[in-house]
Design brief:
- By secondary structure, the protein is α/β, with parallel strands linked by helices.
- It has one domain: 3-Layer(aba) Sandwich (Alkaline Phosphatase, subunit A), CATH 3.40.720.10.
- The chain contains 14 helices and 16 strands.
- An eight-stranded mixed sheet has the order 6-5-7-1-8-11-4-12, with helices on both faces. It has a two-stranded antiparallel ribbon with strand order 2-3. The protein has a two-stranded antiparallel sheet with strand order 9-10.
- It is globular.
Length: 439
Amino acid sequence: MHLPRFSENHPSRRELLKLLAAGVGGASLSGWLGPLAAAAQQQQAPAQGRARAKSCILLWMDGGPSHVDTFDPKPEAGADIHGDLGAIGTSVPGIQIGEKFPHLAKLMQHGAILRGMSTAEADHGRARVYMHTGYRPGAGGVTYPGLGSTVSDELARPDSPLPNFVVTGTPLNKHDVIRDPGYRGPRHQPLVLTDLSQGLEYATPASGSEDFDRRTRLLGTLEERFARTTQSPAAVAHEAGLAAALRLMRSDRRDCFDLSLEPAASRSRYGETDFGRGCLLARRLVEAGVGFIEVYLANWDSHVRAVADKTRDLMTQVDLGMSALVSDLHSRGLLESTLIIWMGEFGRTPRINSTGGRDHFSRAWSTVMFGGGIRGGQVIGATDATGSEVKDRPVSVVDFMATTCHLLGIDYKKEVDTPAGRPVRIVDKGERLIAELLG
């Protein structure tokens, strides 16, 4: 197959290298710019007249936050359970949450707390894979895609100059599951941003338009010669990456990455933290049409008192950033079409350990959802008096993933062929939809 010739709308190699090295946070161009690869191979045409798909924002609490300290408080239990944190009422009578979330408490009419999460992995790495993909690591010898890559593939907007999957936060380099698209392929890797104060660096052509066009014609000639002799998926993805990079560089929609365009009062409401800025960026990206954004907040692994004490600040960051995100999306009419998920890979032991911290605990923990068409103002499931066991409405990983896909309009029973030709369900069998969430 002869690949299409580059048009004049392509960046210089120097500008592309800058965009790759710094402007897109080290992400693979062939990943987040991938929808054009499909177009280059004429495998699919952009959808015509397609309704706007829902968006999803995953607020990932890496390390596993304590459910007892956050969204399943146990004020009647002993101090060895609830520690020094109490519970507060919310906008929904009868629902209490941890005292560090006063702003979110006022918005619980829009949210639902799943207090019956119960999973089978209590190791960080394995649990992280499990909760991102819905499959236990190593199952069937397949590398499964994370939810972001699935959304990117299933709900992609092929005519958009923006990526379909964006991840923000640090540290990210050791957590390949967030980036690894598995059998979905490199077209569905995320754009990874680690320094939101810089926006999307090097995305604006450095030279004048005439010089820029001259150099892109030269680059196009070189690329065409290479593509003519190298007929491979990698070459196609590379060409598509260059093409789509230019689309972004030419588009005025790249301004959605520039947080300096937000009023100071708006930035302040989200909190002057990386997490707060990530939540603000997520709102801007949803407005621009990006399908999946993951905002990463680390250091919840509170085995000892010193770390446990620091999670109080993390809770405040979540309260400010998440409440501003929910409020802004609601006021803009976007909350119904945007599913917000707050979760980590598991919870923490309800009983405080001998060092003043809490250890890994996957048997009973909490996840929170806002928007996305869910029935808000409710708690689903319950743990016992100490938060040690699920006593009502347990929710498994496949239950959670199937329900999330359903809310986003994805057929979770659909089978996708791996590169080896093996059909794999988007969500493993045995699911039980969380019917209480569904409107």
